[in-house]
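Teaching assistant here, posting this on the class forum so everyone can see the example we discussed in section. The complex has two components, and the goal was to see what a joint structure prediction looks like when all of them are supplied at once.
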Amino acid sequence: MSKFKKKKKGLPAISTASLPDIVFMLLFFFMVSTTMRETDLVIKKPVLPQASEVKKLEQKSLVSTIYVGKSKDSRVSGDKIQANDKIIDVKDVISFIFSERASRKEEEVKFMTTSIKADKEANVGTIIDIKEKLRDIDALKISFSTTRGTDIKSNF
Amino acid sequence: MARREIGEINAGSMADIAFLLLIFFLVTTTMDVDSGIARKLPEKTDIKSDVIVKEKNVLDIVVNRNNQLLVENEYVQVTDVKRLAMKFLNNGGGLSTPTDGKPAEPCDYCTGDKDPSSSDHPTKAIISLQSDRGTSYGMYISIQNEIEAAYNQLRNDLGKRLYNRSYDELLKEYSDNPSESINVKISNLKDKFPQIISEPEPIK
């Protein structure tokens, strides 16, 4: 009866030959989806307010970001405006937007959006000044950057 | 002279290398989707046109430097803004502005109180948000958000009545597969409740 020898019990070892493939797949996913942090913040990282009616910003390449927040040095008071790795004055917003426009194609300029990432403690006055400057040069599309949430009370 | 055979390269460490790269990208990746409240700024024009707007067609929202709110001269909380704005926009107490030969007509899609002392027509209703320079940005955004929420809710409700689909659903459908028929519906809803928000000069 040796024809019906008992089969060896126990599971065979799982082949790890496809492991590199799986890892590569993950790797490519992260390589594609990653966005390197393009700017280093010179100001204190703004705490964005919460809002429920948010829209996603399309076409990230057409977005220029202006940060508003407190200085890292706690002795310096008042709001600081940052664009392109350095702290700028309100009137320099115009030249910042022009330099952003210069690096885009001409037909894309009208789709450009300015995203304002401001700290929730910032003053509305600063934001209004920026808005006025943007209006002066017809950069009319803006987006107030917020995080998605419904806890409105935490904003103030 | 014996030719030296090139041995096969051992691929066993491939996974390790890939893992190393994977971990690097995992750490450096930031997948924050940039989202926010979209606004279109009004254009600057030299021509000063004096448009006369009836006071009943304007919802006055004033916020001071202590983040206190006045809506139509009454002290309210931020959470009340949405309700008040909806009541104001949806009122439909009068006639629309006659445009392009179309006669003025009453708002047949408004479900409001038809109060003659409040706004005439959604296309005439203006929300005015006056802030102080010292108001905190968080407060400002909260009010903007509440106003936006009021418009969205009205458009959603109207969408459900007209097309059995809310405004949000239509927008989502349009982004999934854009078609002309959905676009027409979206712009119709937008025209029915246009966002007219005025921001006068801040209080110094």
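For the discussion questions: The longest strand of chain B covers residues 35-40. Residues 137-163 of chain B form the longest helix (27 residues). Think about how each of these relates to the inputs above.
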